[in-house]
Design brief:
Elements lengths: L1 E5 L3 H12 L3 E6 L2 H10 L3 E4 L5 H6 L7 E4 L4 H11 L6 E5 L14 H4 L3 E3 L1 H14 L5 E5 L4 E7 L11 H8 L4 E8 L2 E3 L12 E7 L3 H7 L9 E5 L3 H12 L3 E5 L3 H10 L4 E3 L6 H6 L7 E4 L4 H13 L5 E4 L6 H4 L6 E3 L1 H13 L4 E6 L5 E7 L20 E8 L2 E3 L12 E7 L3 H9 L1
Length: 448
């Protein structure tokens, strides 16, 4: 499939890497020639120097043969114009990244339908949704939904006092049963392990569990975990993300304190929020934070425009007693380093947005795809093809590719967690966790 991407900054770069690794025919267009040449050396893609809002550039880049068109520059106008220009050609799907909320409401005069764009995505809105998911399952550091929200993939850190540490998965199965969850992966020392029964859970491991939504509370209790909504949340940064999160937390009845340095913007926040306490000071002022009760905070969310401020504010709050932090980081390549500093959850808006685009545009029988932030693993939801080898076949007899595991099965809108005895049926949706080395084997397994 030929994919044309406009914009070679973080979202475009992330998408180019993913599609190129799959063997897709990727064309990347950007005005910055230095950035393009660097990516051309790194990836097996075609780069074109110029504006994605130019018909000549699009035609020179091969727009006539393009099936998927993605515009993700930092300019809303360029992205929308590029998508509108692509309508002249035989492009099957168009995706645009925008920041202006005027394009995001279903009632807006210039929404997706009016513009003829298949998907309009906002990094800020995607980030807000991600933060809210993490707040509702507070023990988890990562969460992704599948099967229209019926199945959840949850990432947990195994701490020293966790009674499951030192146990093999086989022992856990015998002690606690495994019919309500699947241990989809263990990340240890930045290495992703697709575990078998003899693998042990160790202190410091990041363990990913595939769970039906209604079973989250019970499964967490099996692992000595207990998620609950925070009572007191501090938000540092009153921009679009901070404002949106505060507004949504208000609906949950959570006590919110929103710190914003700009006095004029504080007036806007005060007028447009209900019970949130808006505080006008720098989020790095430790004395004022202590006066406002930062040591009692269940959660601090740092979402200013400065990575350095977000990191320092999170560490400062944790030092003074805040229990957990969610930290916005624009430089997604810093994310693997931050856990060692004490940052609980680090999120890159651009990477979150790129992953949402990936879920939407994946081809063929693949329903959706999620990249696991900070790892080399992905999760796909795909439909079982109608082939003889899959009819009434137990999972244990299929010799599934190494480096991949089935976490859940959706059949006739019902979700269940499989065992080796579980049989497949055509049109089942499988939710599969796999490492990047296994992706081609997984695709080949279902194609042949």
């Amino acid at each position: 499939m030929r994919i044309m991407i406009i914009g070679a900054r973080q979202v475009g770069r992330h998408l180019s890497r993913k599609f190129s690794a799959e063997g897709q025919d990727v064309v990347l267009i950007d005005r910055n020639e230095t950035r393009l040449r660097r990516l051309e050396r790194e990836l097996n893609i075609l780069v074109v120097h110029g504006s994605g809002a130019s018909i000549k550039i699009l035609e020179d880049a091969g727009i006539n043969n393009t099936e998927l068109f993605i515009a993700v520059t930092d300019s809303d106008e360029v992205n929308l114009v590029a998508c509108l220009l692509s309508k002249k050609y035989n492009v099957k799907k168009r995706v645009a990244r925008v920041r202006n909320e005027d394009f995001l409401s279903p009632d807006a005069p210039l929404n997706e339908k009016a513009l003829g764009i298949d998907m309009i995505i906002s990094p800020d809105r995607a980030m807000t949704d991600e933060i809210m998911q993490l707040i509702t399952v507070s023990e988890a550091f990562d969460t992704s939904e599948f099967a229209n929200g019926q199945v959840v993939l949850l990432g947990y850190v195994i701490n020293e006092n966790n009674p499951c540490s030192g146990s093999t998965l086989q022992k856990l199965k015998q002690q606690k049963g495994s019919y309500r969850y699947v241990v989809a992966a263990i990340i240890r020392n930045d290495k992703t392990i697709i575990p078998g029964g003899d693998d042990r859970i160790e202190v410091g491991d990041k363990v990913y569990l595939m769970v039906r939504r209604q079973d989250i509370t019970e499964v967490e209790s099996m692992f000595n975990l207990s998620s609950k909504l925070p009572e007191l949340v501090f938000i540092i940064g009153g921009g679009t993300i901070g404002f949106s999160v505060a507004k949504r937390l208000e609906t949950l009845g959570i006590n919110v304190r929103l710190v914003e340095e700009d006095a004029d913007h504080c007036d806007f926040l005060t007028e447009n929020l209900g019970n949130t306490l808006v505080l006008n000071f720098d989020g790095l002022e430790a004395d004022v934070l202590l006066e406002e009760g930062i040591e009692k905070a269940d959660l601090i969310i740092t979402v200013t425009d400065s990575d350095a401020s977000n990191i320092l504010a999170s560490l400062l709050a944790k030092h003074h007693g805040a229990k957990k932090c969610i930290t916005k980081i624009n430089r997604h390549d810093f994310i693997p380093l931050l856990g060692k500093l004490g940052i609980d959850v680090a999120l890159s808006p651009r990477e979150v947005a790129a992953d949402m685009i990936l879920r939407y545009v994946r081809r063929g029988a693949i329903v959706s795809v999620t990249t696991i932030l900070g790892s080399d693993a992905e999760v796909i939801e795909l439909k079982v093809p109608d082939r003889p080898k899959f009819r009434d076949a137990p999972l244990k007899s299929l010799y599934f590719p190494k480096g991949a595991i089935v976490g859940a099965i959706v059949r006739d809108s019902q979700v269940f967690i499989p065992s080796g005895e579980t049989t497949l049926q055509p049109d089942d949706n499988l939710i599969i966790f796999f490492t990047k080395e296994a992706i081609q084997h997984v695709e080949a397994f279902f194609e042949h």
